[in-house]
Amino acid sequence: MRLLRHFVPRDDQNNNTMPETYQYQGNPFTREDLTHLCLCPCCGEPDCGEEYMLLTESEGKQEAVLFGGGTFRGYLNYWFYEGITPVEYSKLPEFVRQNNECTGWQDISAQCTEINADDFLLTLESIKNCSRKEYLYDDFENYYYPIFKKFAEEAMRKGQKLYISI
Q: Its domain of life (predicted)?
């Protein structure tokens, strides 16, 4: 996968993400870049190496949302706790189970995997509505949730497949 990122400044005054333009094998696509929300606990730099992309394609044109995988996986890890029963675990969205089990989209050998858009939306709703306050962050509700939800719903409305690239 060839990915070139062209810098477009972020509006820090309003803490809004500005769109960036990407080139993926010669096909430009523009969407959101959420990597500025992901600070490395070791070096303190924004998303120092674990960028993920949520992708869709229509008529040869690709669109994506770029985000920090480590931070997003932190939201998914909420459900993986000691003492969870097999029945509770089986009710988790498939997207969450694949994250926990390192299968499907989270398989180390996976590069760009199709994901179920309905299941992804269920995952987003589950994160947003979780009851354990230590896992609630304003960044999720203010940035990840609305951007991911809009992106996935738009792909579904257009009949497009949804992919994740890690």
A: Bacteria
Q: Which amino acid does the sequence have at 147?
A: I
Q: Using an 8 Å Cβ cutoff, are 137 and 83 in contact?
A: no
Q: What is the pLDDT of residues 57-84, one digit of tens each?
A: 887 788 899 888 877 887 887 766 667 8
Q: What is the pLDDT of residue 5?
A: 35
- Which residues sit opposite 68 in a β-bridge? 51
Task: With beta carbons less than 8 A apart as the criterion, state whether 55 and 27 touch.
Answer: no
DSSP string of 67-123, one letter each residue: EEHHHHHHHHGGG--TT--HHHHHTS-HHHHHHHHT-GGG-TT-SEEEE-HHHHHHH
Q: Which residue numbers in the chain have pLDDT < 50? A: 1-24, 26-28
* Burial profile 135-155: b = 16 or more Cβ within 10 angstroms, e = fewer: ebeebbeebbbebbeebbeeb
Question: Which pLDDT score is estimated for 122?
Answer: 94
Distance (Å, whole) CA 161 – CA 115: 8
pLDDT of residue 47: 59
